[in-house]
Amino acid sequence: MNDGALDDYLSGWRDGDPQRAYAWLFLRPAERIRFGGCEALVHEWRKTLREVREPQVAVAKLGWWREELNRAAGGEPRHPLTRALFADPRIRAVPLPCWTAVVDAVLLLVAASPSADFDTQRRAIAPLSAAVAELETRLWFSPPADAGRAAAVTALTDLVTDLRSLPGEVERGRSPLPMNLLARHGLTIEQSAVDGPAQRAALRDYAQLLGDALADAATMMGPLTLFRAVALQRDLQDVARSAGAENPLAALRAQAAGFGTLLKTWRAARTWRAVPHSEANA
Fold first, then answer.
1. For residue 144, pLDDT beyond 90
2. Is 20 helix (H, G, I), strand (E, B) or coil?
């Protein structure tokens, strides 16, 4: 196995957010490969959705990944991430459909139209968030763990991630903002990426919707992975700040780091460790 290639994928995902790097400190070496590798793999599939302009190219790339998962389950992985992950008995114990369901859900979004409103937006992303949450919950917790809360949080953190990348999303023909908000503020999709009073007002309205939904998800019952818990903490803080900021996008994109963030991550790690885990996660 090319350990350097594996490290590149793991570090590329981990270093994309300071809170992930903090969470990394509280994982054992095997957990970093198992849990971090799973997150990095899902990130590769999401990148195909977010970064590939031509739908047919995205479909081809995701088709390759689906084939790779079948090969990995059969003991013939080729990619550094699948080679590392499927060497782990805990990974091999997860049914193959749990992995391919994530790829299939990404495929559903390749040619998706802009959502009419916030509720439609959440329904559109629900198959992907549910598949990711089911996969993560199987890996991190002893069955039968309920993945409902994880699915709700995953959907909302994905929407916040899209909003942080607003200019790039619009450049690729995608609209992080639902169409009814654009209409309310007299914006086209292209204009939503341009700073100005109307754009800022629309972003504040959307941040309020996201903040209310995140607050509701935070009170739900059910376990969250360490990475998912710290993402929820960050998004709650950032979205609340964005809803009241003069420049909502700048406020949302400001990266939080420092001792306070590290302390919150430590607390999240303690909460996660307190949840029953399978012996394979010890």
1. no
2. helix
Mean of all residue pLDDT scores within the chain:
92
- Mean pLDDT value of segment 231-252: 96
Calpha distance 118→210 (Å, rounded): 9
- Which candidate, 168, 167, 173, 64, places its Cα nearest to that of 109? 173
For the chain, give the percent of residues with pLDDT over 90: 82
- Give, rounded to a whole angstrom, the gap between the first and last alpha carbons of the chain: 24
Give the global pTM: 0.93
- Extract the tokens encoding 225: 């992975």
Token couple for 157: 């953190």
Kindly state the tokens that stand for 25. 């400190």
What are the angstrom distances between the C-alpha of 230 and each of 19, 37, 60, 237, 266? 7, 17, 33, 11, 10
CATH number at residue 209: 1.10.600.10
Domain count, the chain: 1
d(CA 23, CA 19): 6
Give residues with Cβ within 8 angstroms of 178, minimum separation 6.
114, 115, 116, 117, 118, 120, 121, 206
**Residue 128: pLDDT band with limits 50, 70, 90:** very high
Helices and strands of the chain, counted as H and E runs? 16, 0
**CA 235: distance to chain centroid?**
12
DSSP state of 35: I
Domain that holds residue 120: 3-281
User: Helix (H, G, I), strand (E, B), or coil: what is residue 196?
Assistant: coil
Residues 159, 154: Cα–Cα separation, whole Å: 9
pLDDT at residue 257 in the model: 67
